[in-house]
User: Fold GntR family transcriptional regulator from Comamonas thiooxydans.
Amino acid sequence: MTAASETFKTTASALANGIRADIISCTLAPGARLRIKDLCERYDSGAIPVREALSRLASSGFVIAEDQKGFRVASVSAKELLDITNTRVHIECEALRLAIANGGLDWEEKLAGAYHRLSRLPMLGEGQGVEPEWERAHAAFHGALISASGSKWLNALAELLRDQTTRYRHLSVANLHAETSAESADGLARDVADEHLQLLNAVLARDVALATKLLAEHLWATSNLVLKLTQPEIGKALR
Assistant:
């Protein structure tokens, strides 16, 4: 591989990661048209690496490539969220079963450390959006849960579906704090930190039945929260 091709590959990968992050955080809104010229300016890049990055993202479901129309951010819907969550529960619960069976002390230490970091970080920032540092720690905790599964494909699919779910969480959090009344917000409250602690304890106790039950409930809780929101913007997006 030449130096030029290596540089191109690195640039396209960095662009794909940057665009993906902006899609997950909803900085690039669901359904938004992705114009090459605008993206070149936004990410200070050339058109060819941008096209390559968009093509890569299309293969993972974050971007839609339309014949003769270019690219757009994948839309959101209640049907898709239910499908993502159902698939994620199947994959992550199986991966967790394998991790509990295969994981040793190093895995337990990694998991406990990931939980400790997550537990010390606030989920919401001053602007009531999800804190990026908490988001990274949250992904690391869920990744650590199944890291000893021994299956790179289960872990890779779980990561992809986790990122897809994260996009919906950003939508729900933004609209929950922007438009939901205090009365209706009370009915949507959940103790995410306690959910993580109960899950950690069940896993360290090697209680497969309880751990997988708690994980499934934890994953569905996020999706059910999004589906319960009735704000105009969310309701319209998820119909």
